[in-house]
Specification:
mainly beta; Jelly Rolls; eight-stranded antiparallel β-sheet; 2 helices
């Protein structure tokens, strides 16, 4: 199932549990918890990212306090990286996301301050959106894991023009991808090698094993957030992608349009 409504992918202590096995691929995973959890990372490197609330994390004997945020629409959050082969305890109140990737290299536990998260404004006009590149290749070092947050103001489109990353070339990486949503309702499109057009809202997941994906459409009156988790086989992490050639011209049109003044929607909390 490519569109996974909230409440259908939970297991045990996890409100959402997407593993490479359950997704039918090799690298990419995501867990969501509402409250305290304790687990071992095994073969997966992970990030601990508060979606709402604050949390204390103990991993490899290292204690980290995450200030977090009231919601994904209130602020950019701090986060912590936990490596493969670690025992992790998370305590606190709220909702926390754990993007993950099957990895082989072991990095130390590291804290990522919210103030250091690169905030990008992408697109313009009705395609204006905010991208929090907290675990993009140039922002934070991991083995295979990539993760960014995207905030789309009501009525706007993001993940646009539609793009793919399922063939290896100089301008395209091979990546599995997860979309996890908050806010909404909105709509998510995936097409080319398989077809999805789903209404999405808080807690929903869309899997993208291959094919073009986008747009992500925020319905009028409803802002849309999604957490993108990506991972693939390459030794060097990259997010390069290939636009659908029918819609690639859209990027050039942005030069003649003003950026939507509603973005950025959030920044690091003081």
């Amino acid at each position: 199932m490519t569109h996974i409504p909230f409440g259908t992918a939970g297991a045990g202590q996890w409100a959402v549990e997407i593993t490479p096995e359950s997704a039918g691929w090799t690298y990419c995973g995501l867990r969501i918890a509402d409250g305290p959890v304790e687990f071992e990372t095994g073969e997966e490197e992970m990030l601990v990212l508060p979606l709402s609330g604050s949390f204390d994390v103990v991993a490899d004997g290292v204690s980290v306090s995450l200030h977090g945020r009231e919601s994904v629409f209130a602020a950019v959050s701090d986060f912590v990286y936990v490596p493969i082969g670690a025992k992790v305890t998370i305590t606190g109140t709220g909702r926390v996301a754990l993007p993950s990737a099957r990895a082989t290299r072991r990095f130390p536990v590291r804290y990522g301050p919210a103030a250091d998260v690169p905030v990008e404004i992408r697109g313009s006009g009705q395609a204006s959106r905010q991208v929090n590149n907290f675990c993009a290749p140039d922002a934070f070092a991991c083995d295979r894991l990539l993760a960014v947050e995207v905030l789309t103001p009501e009525g706007n489109w993001s993940s646009y023009p539609p793009h793919k990353h399922d063939e290896l070339s100089e301008r395209e990486a091979v990546l599995e991808e997860i979309y996890y949503f908050e806010g909404g309702p909105g709509y998510q499109r995936v097409y080319g090698t398989h077809e999805v057009l789903a209404e999405v809202s808080a807690g929903d997941v869309v899997l993208v094993p291959h094919g073009y994906h986008g747009p992500s459409m925020a319905a009028p009156g409803y802002d849309l957030y999604y957490l993108n988790v990506l991972a693939g086989p390459a030794d060097e992490r990259s997010m390069v992608c290939c636009d659908d050639p029918r819609h690639a011209w859209i990027r050039a049109s942005w030069a003649d349009q003003a950026v939507d003044p509603r973005v950025p929607m959030t920044k690091a909390a003081r």
